Amino acid sequence: MSSVYPRQATPPLNTAASVDLPEVENYVSHALKTTKPLPPVRWDNLISELNWIGVFVITLPPVVSIVGAYHTRLRWETALFSVFYYFFTGLGVTAGYHRLWAHRSYNAGRFLQYFLAIAGAGAVQGPIKWWSRGHRAHHRYTDTELDPYNAQEGFWYSHMGWMLVKPRRKPALPAPLLLTMSFVVPTLIAWLGWGDARGGYVYAGFVRLCFVQHSTFCVNSLAHWLGASPFDDKHTPRDHLVTALCTLGEGYHNFHHQFPMDYRNAIKWYQYDPTKWFIWVCQKLGLATHLKVFPDNEVRKGQLTMQLKRLRETQESLAWPSDSNDLPVISWDSYIEQCAQRPLILISGFIHDVASFIDEHPGGAHWIVKYIGKDATTAFFGGVYDHSNAAHNLLAMKRVGVLHGGIRLAVDDKAVPPAQRLKIARYAELSSSNASSTAYSDHDEGEGLLG
């Protein structure tokens, strides 16, 4: 029977141990070859391989939420408090577990550290050290079998399936603080505040917990599935407003994976990132310092790289004129001779077959016929009409030959149509390009029929 969730052991992120790692060309490949994988989870061993803590944490809140909400009236005070408590516990994860402890993107004072640790406990995310270790492994081994939340295994596996099977190490959950912040505190606040202990327990406790848990899970799933890759497309992380709305600003995930030490996820002022705003306010209040920001110059390089890549894809989907080196070199006498069989016009050293354009010429067919067998360079470049870039590009598509000794292709801009003057070229193409052209050589007596 096929496996339910294939799993691979993930080596611990231990700084001291990493010093002794072997020098290998690709550590992921080396680890997969030398590390014995955990047995795959199949239907016949599913019960024994389940992570019952994860199963309990994931399944109990929605069950209690549905049953409790059905039997409990939602008061407006409790509704507002539940939303507030969602943001409070959610920021404990995004600003605390994630950006402070996992990525060290800023420094926090003792008060802010305790505040975020207590808030994060209410999100039932496990110990800070365990959470940070797993998240660092996710960044180090993104989209590989060593990634704890490997998006290549599917949306639901990365969302929460990885929590349902046994991890390499059993998490030591700080149960007393977890239970207190998840259920006791919201119940007491709702009871003492407006006499709705039951509503606080159900809505601010369990219902809120469902939302904050799946908000965090979306960073591992939705953020690797929905959106664009404006900084790099090597791996699956993506940027999208919807994901940001679901995760308190963690939805600009493509940026985050490229620049994980940056305290921001969203770099534009209008992008939704309440976690960034919270950290910034803490800095202004003196609770946080040393907010790390990746150099803007390098961020813009990443954006430019992807923009050029998209332009290159568009460029390769278009038809372009024949390379001058692939066109036959024709003498003047041969050019005049062949004009008797078909309408050929010489412009900028290139011979053009204009048969398909005579009747479509905006200025009338007589202007085309007038220059057949002649050099119309001056007329085309302003002598009669200063043609548009579109006209230059269209003309280049009609090239069928090069006049022998007609033009210095490497130095005359007239030989390059506007659409090709900023053409995207890979480094290998630039390094191997040849500035000279056989069309200019006065010693080349070669001649061929026009294509």
TrEMBL record:
Residue stretches making up the Cytochrome b5 heme-binding domain: 345-404
Location, primary (coarse class): membrane
Protein name as catalogued: Acyl-CoA desaturase
Signal peptide: none
UniProt membrane topology term: Multi-pass membrane protein
Protein role: Stearoyl-CoA desaturase that utilizes O(2) and electrons from reduced cytochrome b5 to introduce the first double bond into saturated fatty acyl-CoA substrates.
Biological processes per GO annotation: unsaturated fatty acid biosynthetic process
Record field: transmembrane: 50-71, 83-100, 112-131, 172-194
Top-level class of the enzyme under EC nomenclature: oxidoreductase
InterPro entries: Acyl-CoA_deSatase_haem/ster-bd (IPR009160), Acyl-CoA_DS (IPR015876), Cyt_B5-like_heme/steroid-bd (IPR001199), Cyt_B5-like_heme/steroid_sf (IPR036400), Cyt_B5_heme-BS (IPR018506), FA_desaturase_dom (IPR005804), FADS-1_CS (IPR001522)
Xref: SMART domains: Cyt-b5
GO terms for cellular component: endoplasmic reticulum membrane
Family: Belongs to the fatty acid desaturase type 1 family.
Single Gene Ontology MF annotation: heme binding
Cofactor note: Expected to bind 2 Fe(2+) ions per subunit.
UniProt-listed Gene3D superfamilies: Cytochrome b5-like heme/steroid binding domain
The enzyme's E.C. designation: 1.14.19.1
Subcellular location: Membrane
Reaction(s) catalysed (UniProt annotation): octadecanoyl-CoA + 2 Fe(II)-[cytochrome b5] + O2 + 2 H(+) = (9Z)-octadecenoyl-CoA + 2 Fe(III)-[cytochrome b5] + 2 H2O
Alphabetic keyword roster: Electron transport, Fatty acid biosynthesis, Fatty acid metabolism, Heme, Iron, Lipid biosynthesis, Lipid metabolism, Membrane, Metal-binding, Oxidoreductase, Transmembrane, Transmembrane helix, Transport
Names of required cofactors: Fe(2+)
Organism: Mycena venus
Keyword Oxidoreductase: yes
PANTHER family recorded: ACYL-COA DESATURASE, DESATURASE 1, ISOFORM A-RELATED
